[in-house]
């Protein structure tokens, strides 16, 4: 906190009022009240985000006197556990054997770092669904259960080369010398497990995180195609950084894959360049042979930026009937900025200027330190149109520019030729 206080003099230097701007060049404005002067960290309202450019280069703040105020966009830490994924490694030793009505996979990890998950290599191409128990041990004698009732499944999709599969099991960030996975066959043919990979993590210090915010979503269209359902979902605003998407499903037993894309212009096909998540498994909570298994209906999007107001959620049905989709929920990572108002009172966000250049404020040099500021809650007003807004003149089309250049070049050549001809026709003077 002392370091943050030491920055206040610098803020009054770097955070001085920026050069003037003409507010009539910005299409929208949204006011908010500042309770006191001094450095503040605020969340940009979702309405302003939606009307700004995708990279927020046209976002501006003006004070009560109409003067532009510099700001710094803040990088927010991910809302996740206090460790990060480092690498995928092969275990030191691997073994799989039948034990009665179960297949038991035992591996020696060969690492002393925390383990996030284990991914089993299951070459079987047939459909299956089995519950599994995951255990860890320091000595291969004393075992501790990490997770029980974890589903392993594969479902082939008619007419597709890919399949919906779930073969990754959690290890809870624990360090362990040995891992054991027990797969219950439940009277069905066992599946072959050919190998395994470990997801190893490096521990990092715990850090404060900014919680994700819920997004008010609406399903505006449902299209049933031959082998998939396509949902058009309205997010309420553009330029949101989505972190997750959850389906509310009325069916009690299902396993599908979900792809989330941006809508292509004039088309609803899945463009790979516009894909936010591809073939993510979602499946129901169920009971297999009396063993309860967990379900998953949420797709992680990792803060993917969505420049459009709508997204497409594509659910691969194969030969199964469409799911009973009762709703879609989403979360987003908020956009925080820090600025230094010199007075309390009514301030305003400006947005909607396609010709505005990205601002270069000196205060941005302090963004890392300013991220330590506590969040100041603001009550933003309604987004309104700027009364005297003047739409910028459309830039000349490339074809128009080319035509003008060719005209002036042709004119210059013509003048040059005429001067040459006239010079040749003039009588020569004797020296």
Verbal overview:
This protein is mostly beta strands and 431 residues long. It has a 6-stranded antiparallel beta sheet with strand order 7-8-14-10-11-12, with no helix packed on it. A 5-stranded antiparallel beta sheet has the order 4-3-28-1-29. It has a 5-stranded antiparallel beta sheet with strand order 17-18-25-20-21, with no helix packed on it. It starts with a helix and ends in a 6-residue tail after the last helix. It has helices at 2-6, 8-14, 46-51, 367-370, 398-425; strands spanning 28-34, 40-43, 60-62, 68-69, 71-74, 83-89, 93-99, 102-108, 115-121, 128-137, 144-156, 163-166, 168-174, 178-184, 195-203, 213-215, 218-224, 228-234, 240-249, 255-261, 275-283, 286-288, 291-293, 298-306, 310-316, 325-333, 336-339, 345-351, 384-385. The chain has 3 domains: 2-76 and 336-385, no CATH class; 83-203, Sandwich (Jelly Rolls), CATH 2.60.120; 213-333, Jelly Rolls (Sandwich). 12% of the residues lie in helices and 43% in strands.
Key words describing this protein structure:
single chain, 431 residues, mainly beta, Jelly Rolls, six-stranded antiparallel β-sheet, five-stranded antiparallel β-sheet, 5 helices, disordered N terminus
């Amino acid at each position: 906190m002392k370091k943050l206080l030491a920055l206040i003099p610098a803020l009054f230097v770097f955070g001085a009022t920026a050069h003037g701007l003409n507010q009539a060049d910005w299409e929208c404005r949204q006011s908010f009240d500042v309770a006191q002067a001094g450095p503040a960290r605020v969340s940009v309202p979702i309405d302003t985000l939606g009307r700004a450019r995708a990279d927020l280069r046209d976002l501006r703040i003006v004070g009560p006197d109409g003067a532009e105020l510099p700001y710094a966009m803040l990088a927010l830490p991910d809302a996740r556990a206090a460790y990060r994924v480092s690498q995928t490694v092969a275990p030191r030793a691997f073994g799989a054997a039948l034990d009665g009505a179960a297949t038991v996979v035992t591996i020696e990890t060969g690492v002393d770092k925390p383990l996030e998950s284990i991914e089993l290599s299951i070459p079987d191409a047939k459909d299956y669904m089995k519950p599994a128990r995951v255990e860890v041990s320091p000595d291969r004698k004393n075992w501790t259960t990490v997770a029980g009732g974890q589903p392993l499944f594969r479902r082939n999709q008619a007419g597709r080369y890919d399949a919906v599969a779930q073969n990754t099991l959690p290890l809870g960030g624990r360090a362990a010398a040995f891992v054991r996975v027990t797969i219950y066959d439940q009277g069905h043919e066992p599946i072959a497990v050919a190998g395994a990979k470990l997801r190893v993590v490096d521990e990092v210090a715990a850090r404060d995180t900014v919680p994700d915010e819920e997004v008010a979503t609406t399903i505006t269209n449902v299209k049933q195609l031959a082998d998939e359902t396509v949902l058009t979902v309205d997010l309420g605003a553009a330029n949101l950084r989505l972190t997750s998407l959850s389906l509310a499903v009325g069916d009690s037993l299902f396993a599908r894959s979900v792809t989330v894309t941006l809508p292509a212009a004039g088309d609803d096909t899945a463009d790979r360049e516009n894909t936010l998540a591809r073939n993510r498994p979602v499946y129901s909570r169920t009971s297999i042979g009396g063993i309860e298994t967990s379900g998953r209906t949420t797709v992680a999007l990792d803060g993917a930026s969505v420049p459009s107001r709508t997204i497409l959620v594509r659910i691969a049905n194969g030969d199964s009937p469409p799911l009973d989709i009762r709703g879609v929920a989403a979360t987003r990572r908020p956009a925080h900025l820090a600025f230094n108002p010199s007075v309390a009172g009514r301030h305003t966000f400006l947005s909607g200027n396609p010709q505005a250049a990205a601002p270069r404020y000196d205060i941005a040099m302090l963004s890392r330190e300013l991220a330590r500021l506590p969040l100041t809650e603001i009550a933003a007003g309604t987004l309104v149109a700027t009364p005297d807004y003047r739409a910028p003149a459309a830039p000349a089309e490339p074809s128009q520019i080319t035509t003008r250049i060719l005209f002036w070049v042709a004119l210059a050549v013509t003048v040059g030729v005429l001067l040459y001809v006239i010079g040749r026709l003039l009588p020569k003077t004797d020296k």
